[in-house]
Amino acid sequence: MRHLIDILDFSKDELYQLILTAKDMIEAPEKYADAAKGKILATLFFEPSTRTRLSFTSAMMSLGGDVLGISEVQSSSVSKGETLADTIRMVAAYSDIIAMRHPNEGAPIVAEQVSTVPIINAGDGGHFHPTQTLTDLLTINRKKGRFNKLKIGVCGDLKYGRTVHSLIAAMSRYGDNEFILISPEELKLPDYVKAEYLDGKCKYTECTSLEEAMSKLDILYMTRIQAERFDSKDEYERLKDSYVLTLDKLTTAKKELAIMHPLPRVNEIAVEVDDDPRAAYFEQAANGRYIRMALILKLLASKKDEIDAGRTGACSAELECKNPHCITRTERGIKHLFKDGKCIYCDQIASNK
Ligand code: NCD
Asked: Hey, is 40 helix, strand or coil?
């Protein structure tokens, strides 16, 4: 059975097919009005969400299907101490497909290990957010008409910004793209992301100044500083307004620049930018509904015996995962698995015990 845990679970060809389907859905939504009739999507959100949860709900309703779910931990038995694995076993019995968001990294991998229905990762801690990347890819396709030869500036919280990690994983697979990673020193892209997707695979530079990078960019992907992932409130307060995009700063930008943002924004894009023709972020959010419709149909059609991504690893007497946000820290009864020296749940390089 197929799941979407990591954007690389889908080939470039599969991603392109999803984009074509989503574009057809935008053109002729009535063709798909009964496509998921009789099916149930469960939305399990253990972290706040507006766009992702509601666009999944809207997507399933637009396909003629039904939706049930929870939008906070307090309203589920997780608050009584139930494990994620047990929760998923139950929800899989009540639904045909599950979209889940969880504060711990690797949580959807625990879910796929026990689920009898497809699992969609709607964000796991500061790790990945593949369905935001689907939305981003549809937006890039509609704005630029290509996935290669693009200079992409990603700006803001590159350490905890899961949308950035999945976007880099996806776009580094296409030829001749270049990333300009713009962040404060404290919020640089993690080494595990660089090692996996950029080093020796895709051109990139790192800098701290948005102004310096501006004139080169085809895409500017702004992100929010992720308050909820900071250990220290003071550090968040110090870094929160590191970048504020204003019309003034756009004077050196290309005319065809696409300004993207997964939203929600806090201060990082001034409201005055919204009316600039280069602002693409509200259109990007709207695209989320259609690409999620395409995703739901694809996964519902996947067969129980279809090969999944094969996320396997081995137990180790020497290694341990030291990432405090990894699901192995909180979930009881799961195997701690490692592959190529990395934790298979959160991808972070493991330490010796
Ligand atoms: C993002 C997320 O949850 O990671 N939002 C979203 O899904 N559109 C970005 C964010 O919260 O900053």
From this structure: strand
Place of tokens 């067969």: 303
Q: Identify whether the C-beta of residue 296 lies closer than 8 Å to the C-beta of residue 327.
A: no
Assess whether the previous peptide bond of 324 is cis (omega < 30° from 0).
Answer: no
How many Å lie between the centroid of ligand 1 and the Cα of residue 26? 23
Q: 46: left (phi > 0), else alpha (psi -120 to 50), else beta?
A: alpha
Backbone angles phi, psi at 102, to 5 degrees: -145, 145
Average pLDDT, the chain: 95
pTM here is 0.96
How many CB atoms sit inside 10 A of residue 35's CB? 17
Count the Cβ atoms, other than its own, within 10 Å of residue 274.
12
Residues of the chain with pLDDT > 90: what percent?
Answer: 92
Average pLDDT over residues 200-209: 97
Q: Which residues does a 6 A CB cutoff place in the pocket of ligand 1?
A: 51-52, 123, 129, 132, 162-163, 224, 262-263
Query: Measuring CA to CA, which residue among 108, 134, 111 is closest to residue 51?
Result: 134
Closest to 260 (Cα-Cα) out of 118, 131, 136? 136
Long-range contacts of 71-77 (CB under 8 A, 24+ apart): 71/43, 71/45, 72/45, 72/46, 72/48, 73/46, 76/44, 76/46
For residue 97, how far is its CA from the centre of ligand 1 (angstroms)?
21
Torsion of CA 290, 296, 301, 307, to 10 degrees: 120
